[in-house]
Amino acid sequence: MRKVVRIEGIPLTEGHSGLHLEVEDGIVKDGFYFALVPVRGFETLLIDKEAVVAPVITSRICGLCQVTHAIASARAVEAAAGIEVPKEAELLREVLGLAVRIYNNLLHQIVISEDLFPDRDERFSFIRRVQNVRKFTGELLESVGGEIIHSPNLRVGGISEPLEDFVKEKILSSIEEIEPLLLELKEEFNEGVERMWRREGLPETFGSHSLGFFATDKFYGKAFDFNRISFRYPQELFEGELKREVTNLYPFIDGLPVETGPRARKVLFDGYKPKGGVKELHLLRSQENVESLARIKEILENNSFNGELWNRTFPTSDGETVGVGVHEAPRGTNIHAVKLDKRGKITYYKIVVPTELNLMAVSEALKGVPATKVEFVVRAYDPCIVCAVH
Amino acid sequence: MLKLDRSFLLGKVKAIYRVVSKGESPLQLILKKMMEQEIIDGVISARKEGGRIVPKLFKAPSEIELSPLNTFFGVNTLLKKAIQKYHLSRIAVVAPSCVMDGLNKTQYYGIGCNWVKTAVALKVGILCTGALTQESLNCEVLDLLGEREEVERCYYTKEGLAYGLSSGRELLVNVEVHHHYVSSACKYCLNLSARGSDITYIPEKEENVGIFIIRSERGGRTLGLLQKEYPSLLKFSSLKMSDISHVEELLKKKMILNIDSILERVEVGLPGSKWDGNRFRKFYRVWNAIGDFNIEEVF
Amino acid sequence: MFFSREDFIREDDLKVKVGFFHFSSCSGCQVSFLDMFEDAVEILDTVELVYSNMLTKRETVPRMHVAFAEGALCIEDRRHLSLARELAEKANIIVTVGACASFGGVRRLSVGSQPPQPSHQSFLPLTEVEILKGKVKYAIPGCPPNPSLLYNFMLALLEVNEDFLQPFEFMASSRDASGYDVVKEVINKGLCVGCGTCVTACPARALDFNYTYGKPTFNPLFCVHCGSCLASCPQSFKPYPQPVY
What we know:
The complex is a heterotrimer.
Chain A: E1 2-8, E2 17-24, E3 27-35, H1 42-45, H2 54-59, H3 66-81, H4 87-111, H5 113-116, H6 120-145, E4 154-155, E5 158-159, H7 165-200, E6 212-213, E7 229-232, H8 234-237, H9 242-245, E8 250-253, E9 258-259, H10 262-270, H11 279-302, E10 323-329, E11 332-340, E12 346-352, H12 354-366, H13 374-380, H14 385-388
Parallel strand pairs in A: 6-9
Antiparallel strand pairs in A: 1-2, 2-3, 4-5, 7-8, 10-11, 11-12
Helix pairs in contact in A: 3-4, 4-6, 4-11, 6-7, 7-11
Chain B: H1 6-10, E1 15-21, H2 26-36, E2 42-49, E3 52-58, H3 79-85, E4 91-96, H4 97-109, E5 120-126, H5 134-145, E6 151-157, E7 160-165, E8 170-172, H6 175-181, E9 199-203, E10 209-214, H7 217-229, E11 234-239, H8 245-268, H9 279-289
Parallel strand pairs in B: 2-4, 4-5, 5-9
Antiparallel strand pairs in B: 1-10, 1-11, 2-3, 6-7, 7-8, 9-10
Chain C: E1 17-22, H1 28-34, H2 38-46, E2 48-52, E3 64-70, E4 73-74, H3 78-90, E5 91-97, H4 98-102, E6 123-124, E7 136-140, H5 147-159, H6 162-172, H7 179-187, H8 197-201, E8 207-210, E9 215-218, H9 228-232
Parallel strand pairs in C: 1-2, 1-3, 3-5, 5-7
Antiparallel strand pairs in C: 4-6, 8-9
């Protein structure tokens, strides 16, 4: 018997989202994952604002991966206005982005820790140690970005404050301290995932799909042709009241749904052979923490950031050129596109967020999963609904 | 009735010392030595830079150079840099009471900057009869002296507030004239001696002499430690309250002018601050009950 | 008084029950709470977190002592309206955390007309919602409020430290929050001492300091309307207990 199930509110995820499932004999045959938080309208509220303010405002799209939006929007404005950014500033932005990646992935581990460690004491001991590492990333974000959440130092044209060598050394020595702990936590987390899979009786390839992968870079983000993205509206995809309730768009790359995120980066840039299923996502995400920390260390060790990191040219453009800013966010590829006029005001703004891309991947991954276990699939993608509905 | 008594003017006093140092200002030397001893890891204050006084964060002992004038505008702007960027954890702040007010508030509530509560190791208040911007200072000197002259230092003598001029002359400042030229908010200040800090510093005529009013355990311990460590560099001599009666006298004169200004403001009904419409009504409460309780808990 | 004995279901159930709710916002305030790091774990251990979409599995809103709410209410979203009703009924008091919930924040700029739901355009801070009027007791400024503020606030709330909490009660009835507050309430009224605390407090660096006239300058372009500047100003609300020495 085929019946329709609607779930609203997925616990242990960010934001308010829902699932529309068609279930037959307890197994999901067709599913859609969608967001239900109101559209805040960042794309329209930015219009006619001066472009220099874009990173400050877009940072407020998301409180989890704030830096990512600030970076993508600053890069988009720079691309539209043809502003050259000092190389060191780009490297520092990469460091910020990676710090936020670790910070977020660990936040996700805290969020889902109830799934992994049903025992309260074990859970709290795990969270305590995760918080130690997050504290380090928080301090890194404060030192480089100015604040933990919503970094004000990220400006159009670079980074507003240099990073003195002694601060850099301080960060490097904290990395030495934190590295073993991060490795230990990775093992513990992976062990927790394995135990959870056994406890819940989930198959190895639980939640697999056959979609392609999409990412632009392993760590930072490379330019991308914005015309390859098309959007489908919920009004075209859904029936009935969902047309008026679903608040996200479904972006497609070259007309196809894709998965983005840690697995996509691994497959496209590390030659990784995907096994399929969502367990892999958990493991790759914790692997990415370690790799990100190593990359932060590499950047800080080999560069110095004492000089001016900010090209203060006022951004203006012809009103036609689309500036595209790409950043590899914790959850995947984050793309901002902007047009500026001669006065430096924004005339067009468009944001494509990783979770938005992944909504389709989640929907695909739900197929074939027992209806009682769908939440595990959703959580594995670490959806950030506030980003998806910006 | 408001009593302009000692406890209102000077606050709690544990001990008073006159410190004579070798060469530079004793406060400057003490901060340098403290940083060498790693009692503090940073100093937030102000210094002269390119002809004007700007706030400065000192991270090495050799950098420390304090503002010779009573101008400490914007010192708190550096809090975030010191605490969130550099992650300093034992900061000394040297500034007059208004800056301490902002600091105390940030420490108490935590608004504005992360974990200030635990990051500040020592608060050195500067005795202040009102702050002047460069332009107001120029005008004041012109008013008093009748000619243009640059002020190099500001200090307190038996006769009151005095400026050391670039020609080497000394200019005694009339308090009433001074009251006219100080920053507007300084006319409503009731905390001239930086109550609520660990130590209050009063610069004296000779550049290497200064008076330290110890208010807290922490302030006393720190100075005691330095006295023991550097007997040849820092000569401490204990003072009695009566030895600083000239300071008390000066503060009293200025405070009367300030109270006049406040009363005028209250009478005309000029607006107070936003969330606390009681600011000036509270003043009346103090006015009526000053002798009864501890002033610091009211303001 | 938000904490009363009648709320306890069991005799041994003495923990304060708190929930964390999310209207239209970026979740940053809730994350900022977690950014107390180890202290957050201690607080989670001390109080009982009865509802949070991110941190608990609970799907229905239970009765609670304190509801922390972040984000602005979207008038066009029926879910927000029903959540507001539910909070009005089930929470003893509501604390609005951060700029969006307290003063509107960047949400004041929203104009709607964005697909797929172009009608979502009006966002109100919770302090302006009539049904929550009696309930919203405290408003915390900041975008986001920094972890140490949230930590101090939690402690003050648990200890019922009226001295600490009072200004936050004032702020719950405050309407606008921007750098203009400092301009019009402090500088313009001759109360600015030039200490620079507001400049340090500004999370968007919209405030800068000028050394010629010794006062802050305000660049409205970057202001996110969080209220931190006036809240941090030592001239805005007094008294706060100063060390007695």
